[in-house]
């Protein structure tokens, strides 16, 4: 047999049935191997996982569900097709929960098993490709960022592409979402990483002092200017100048900044001498820059000078998959700083965190956890430790309250069972309805990742298009 053929392992205690399955697959492009008990099957899976597994649930030495759970827990890369003569709703739901690809009931036709195996092998090949891409591109830590959500992966890739150039970057995003972290990441990923990174918050400095903060001043330029002083532009020479909340800058200063961006030269306040520097500009705002231009609060020519490479930082509610990763990071960090024992969150707290909208984004999450760590000391964060408004959410019952009602066997037709993909879809849709459209909570109920539900819903929409 050609070694590049997909491999199918059959775990079936009946030699006669195993031979029937082999006969069904003759002429198919597979390498087929059969073992008659669970221990032998587990050994084969550990040694060389096949692309697909035909798994009988009734084995002489163990329940086949144990093998499925083992595959799930160890993340063994194989697509599992359950074969059984003892079907039930509970078995179907358990099989779905532990990642079974399909569920077929004895007796079944040659066509049924061929189609199912073909789809299972295709799915596993796709998973392998996705995992390879993920290994290459998916990161959960990146120059100060913490998170592996798709929204954040897109930001990482833009930074990778933009950092080596001198092009100006314009960062948008809500307050507390990580715009300065993004600017620092660009600097650290660039060839200027060994030169200064100078951040300046335009919203935190009085307007009459902003020009001096950017360009510096000479002695006697204004009352209190007792000596010459370098501004941020000079300090950033050779490196990166980050102008945060640039929308707060008044129009007169925007004109001088435009000239600086265009020419690379400026004058200190009170001086006529031109100073030339080599600076990479990064700016950020929590406002809608195009609306600011349309309403006359931001110069259009400056906007187009700065808006060369736009990067939007997603809000925390747009990257729900990252919430618990961030929360655990900050909990460990603050506990170490405060010499506290905190190590984990109660499940109810995790549910509250996933349910909350986080209008203050990462900064708010940090403040909540700092509050808990300073005021309490325990190994586990519990709901009674949460500050407002999260304690109110906990009292209203953000944690999952009950399992969504599934169809009774009598509702499923004369066979008492339906295809796994139908049961799976109904379970997901009922969970979403039960959680009033909150997909992270539905995912917590079903004990799957929210991204799994998003992906499946997208697939259903595509199939129905």
From TrEMBL:
Keywords: ATP-binding, DNA-binding, Nucleotide-binding, Phosphoprotein, Transcription, Transcription regulation, Two-component regulatory system
Modified residues (4-aspartylphosphate): 56
GO molecular-function terms, A-Z: ATP binding; sequence-specific DNA binding
Domain Sigma-54 factor interaction: 145-374
SMART domains: AAA, REC
Protein's name in the database: Sigma-54-dependent Fis family transcriptional regulator
Domain Response regulatory: 7-121
GO biological process: phosphorelay signal transduction system; regulation of DNA-templated transcription
């Amino acid at each position: 047999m050609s070694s590049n053929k997909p491999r199918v392992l059959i775990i079936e205690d009946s030699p006669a049935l195993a031979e029937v399955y082999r006969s069904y697959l003759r002429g198919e492009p597979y390498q087929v191997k059969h073992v008659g008990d669970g221990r032998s099957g587990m050994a084969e899976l550990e040694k060389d996982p096949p692309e697909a597994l035909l798994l009988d649930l009734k084995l002489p030495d163990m329940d086949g569900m144990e093998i499925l759970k083992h595959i799930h827990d160890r993340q063994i890369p194989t697509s599992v097709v359950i074969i059984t003569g003892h079907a039930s709703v509970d078995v179907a739901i358990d099989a779905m929960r532990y990642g079974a690809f399909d569920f077929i009931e004895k007796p079944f036709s040659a066509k049924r098993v061929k189609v199912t195996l073909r789809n299972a092998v295709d799915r596993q090949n796709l998973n392998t490709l996705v995992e390879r891409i993920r290994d290459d591109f998916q990161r959960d830590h990146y120059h100060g960022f913490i998170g592996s959500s798709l929204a954040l992966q897109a930001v990482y890739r833009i930074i990778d592409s933009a950092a080596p150039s001198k092009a100006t970057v314009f960062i948008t995003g809500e307050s507390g979402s990580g715009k300065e972290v993004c600017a620092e990441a660009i600097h650290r990923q660039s060839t200027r990483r060994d030169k200064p990174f100078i951040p300046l918050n335009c919203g935190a400095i009085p307007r009459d002092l902003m020009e001096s903060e950017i360009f510096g001043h000479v002695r006697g330029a204004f009352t209190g200017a007792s000596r010459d002083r370098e501004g941020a532009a000079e300090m950033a020479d050779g490196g990166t100048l980050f102008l945060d909340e640039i929308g707060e800058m008044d129009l007169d200063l925007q004109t001088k900044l435009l000239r600086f961006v265009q020419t690379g030269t400026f004058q200190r306040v009170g001086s006529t001498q031109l100073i030339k520097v080599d600076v990479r500009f990064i700016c950020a705002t929590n406002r809608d820059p195009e609306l600011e231009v349309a309403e006359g609060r931001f110069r259009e020519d400056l906007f187009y000078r700065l808006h060369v490479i736009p990067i939007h930082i997603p809000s925390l509610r747009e990257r729900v998959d990252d919430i618990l990763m961030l929360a655990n990071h900050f909990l460990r960090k603050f506990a170490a700083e405060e010499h506290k024992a905190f190590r984990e969150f109660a499940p109810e707290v995790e549910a509250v965190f996933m349910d909350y909208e986080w209008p203050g984004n990462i900064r708010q999450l940090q403040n909540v956890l700092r509050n808990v760590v300073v005021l309490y000391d325990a190994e586990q964060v519990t709901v009674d430790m949460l500050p407002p408004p999260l304690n109110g959410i906990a009292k209203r019952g953000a944690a999952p309250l009950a399992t969504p009602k599934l169809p009774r066997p009598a509702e499923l037709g004369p066979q008492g069972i339906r295809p796994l993909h139908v049961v799976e879809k109904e379970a997901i849709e009922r969970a979403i309805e039960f959680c009033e459209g909150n997909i992270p909570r539905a995912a917590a109920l079903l004990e799957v990742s929210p991204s799994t539900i998003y992906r499946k819903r997208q697939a259903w929409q595509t199939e129905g298009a």
